[in-house]
Specification:
Layout: E1 5-11, H1 19-23, E2 30-35, E3 38-43, E4 46-52, H2 58-68, E5 72-77, H3 88-108, E6 113-115, H4 124-136, E7 143-146, H5 160-169, E8 173-176, H6 191-210, H7 213-216, E9 222-224, H8 231-244, H9 255-259, E10 263-265, H10 271-281, E11 286-287, H11 303-306, H12 313-327
Parallel strand pairs: 1-5, 5-6, 7-8, 8-9, 9-10, 10-11
Antiparallel strand pairs: 2-3, 3-4
Helix pairs in contact: 3-4, 4-5, 6-8
């Protein structure tokens, strides 16, 4: 029997705390209700994102899932809440509140939801401690992390202990873009979402490979949001750079060798791109994900996978659910 698992969805507590009042500082995201079924996420007094009760109400989510034929959603925090810029003990509290909420939502609806946690990645000790709590106490199945930490790429030496711990504990990591590169040039036309995020994700993936993280920790399980952004399409160029600049090499083999271990969600907006991902990395490495409940999400989830005509029924079945469960170390 086919099980449809939407790997890429976001959630936030309805009673999300106001850390501006608690700790001061303008960078904390604050949820400002606009009506019984809607709210704005505010940052620095400005609207960062408009959201609906789909973001916090499990019953509303389940209703949407039934209508769109999704059996299970994998829940992860909204990236703006990562708060890597904050003092570690404050960001740890932000993470704990969200992780407790996600864990409780899963506990109340165990057949409908799977939880991913968040950690204060600006401090390795705090991050590992919260990752251990997520996995051992809250029964989370993985951790969502951002593509950079205060401008430091994911191969920064300060993050190595975290990746070592994630590999040792066999914790799947979902890498989601945030605080994108070139922010001063992508303020118009919502280019942060359509150009900035794909570029930021490519930089994160390339850094993990070229910085030697994937070579040092080959059993790391990493999935990139939005089909890996632009990374799959610049991979041949990364290989070319590795070939022509041997004096810069920190890895023994070309980047495409290490990229084979990556996973990608299927949110690419075109069946031809789904096919390209399958041809490049294998159908086993693609997880159906919709970005529910935001405006750029795929409706219905998995539509582009279903419309990728060259895929077999078995390959579609794997992408639509089996791959996500295997990635998350679940039956």
């Amino acid at each position: 029997m086919e099980m449809r698992v939407d790997f890429h969805t976001h959630i936030i507590p309805e009673d999300f705390p106001n850390f501006v009042e608690k700790f001061s500082g303008e960078r904390w995201p604050v949820m400002q209700r606009t009506c019984t079924c809607g709210a704005n996420i505010m940052v620095g007094g400005k609207v960062f994102r408009e959201i609906t009760d789909q973001c916090w109400d499990p019953a509303r989510r389940i209703s949407d899932m039934e209508r769109e034929h999704v059996d299970v959603q994998v829940l992860s925090p909204i990236p703006v809440t990562f708060s890597y810029w904050a003092p570690p003990e404050q960001a740890a509290l932000m993470a704990q509140i969200q992780n407790d909420f996600i864990a409780q939502t899963v506990k109340e609806n165990p057949k409908k939801f799977i939880g991913l946690g968040t950690v204060p990645l600006q401090d390795t000790e705090f991050a590992i401690r919260e990752m251990e709590r997520c996995m051992n106490e809250l029964d989370m199945k993985g951790i969502e992390i951002g593509t950079n930490v205060n401008g430091k790429n994911l191969d920064d030496p300060s993050l190595i202990e975290f990746f070592a711990a994630a590999e040792k504990m066999n914790v799947p990591l979902f890498v989601h873009p945030w605080e994108t590169l070139g922010k001063d040039r992508i303020t118009r036309h919502n280019l942060m979402y359509t150009v900035g995020m794909p570029s930021e994700t490519a930089l994160a993936a390339a850094s993990l490979i070229l910085g030697g993280v994937m070579e040092k920790y080959p059993n790391l399980k990493i999935c990139f949001a939005h089909g890996g952004g632009s990374f799959p399409y610049i991979l041949p160029r990364l290989d070319k750079g590795w070939k022509v600049w041997p004096h810069l090499r920190l890895i023994d083999k070309p980047p495409s060798h290490y990229a084979k271990s990556f996973y990608f969600d299927s949110l690419v907006n075109d069946p031809k791109i789904v096919q390209f991902l399958v041809d490049s990395f294998g159908h086993e490495k693609i997880l159906m994900g919709s970005d529910y409940p935001f405006l750029l999400r795929e409706i219905p989830p998995g539509n582009d996978v279903e419309n990728t005509v060259s895929l077999t029924d078995e390959q579609k079945k794997a992408i639509m659910g089996e791959n996500a469960l295997r990635f998350l170390n679940m039956k």
